[in-house]
Amino acid sequence: MLRIARGDQAPLPGFEQDDYVKTGNFSARRLSDLLAEFTSIRQATIALMRSLDTAAWLRRGVASQNEVTALALAFIIAGHERHHWLILRDRYIPALPRP
To answer: C-alpha distances in angstroms, 98 versus 1, 7, 39, 84, 93?
Structure first.
């Protein structure tokens, strides 16, 4: 979203997310550390979104071989964040209330 919002026209390649997970060593990390990292990344993303003006939201680029706007990526990011929150809740924090 940052690159597209700032007008970078270089296509952004996709990546194999499962390979990233395999080497993430998540089982050796404390849940509190994972939550702190999750929170930091979310706060940085929100700060970026708040900084964008109308022109930035409407800029187009290519990500994973698909044309997309920065605005569309914001919706994708929000859905992805929710997906990960639900995984954390369901697997690690079952006592949390369901939204």
So the answer is: 29, 39, 19, 14, 11
Structural tokens at position 10: 């270089």
Give the Cα separation of 83 and 99 in Å (integer). Answer: 12
Residue partners of 22: CB distance under 8 A and separation at least 6: none
> What is the rounded CA–CA span in Å between residue 71 and residue 58?
6
Phi, psi of 66 (to 5 degrees): -125, 135
Find out whether 70 and 1 touch, Cβ atoms under 8 Å: yes
Residue range 44-74, pLDDT digits in tens: 999 999 999 999 999 999 999 999 999 999 9
Predicted local confidence at residue 97, as pLDDT: 61
Q: pTM for the complete prediction?
A: 0.80
